[in-house]
Amino acid sequence: MGHFSSLVLYSVLVSIVFALLTKDTQKERALYFLKMFAAFVGLSILSAWFMYLFPFW
Asked: Where in the chain are the domains?
């Protein structure tokens, strides 16, 4: 399993747990899951590119 697939798996699992714990209705859970998943993956990719562009020796 590569880094990106591990990131996606972790994001899915954590987003599911957060959605189940914080929201009441099925629609709210689904929307919250999608938002959290997109935030996890998007911010991880953004921070990876930031670290790539500005390496710290």
From this structure: 3-53
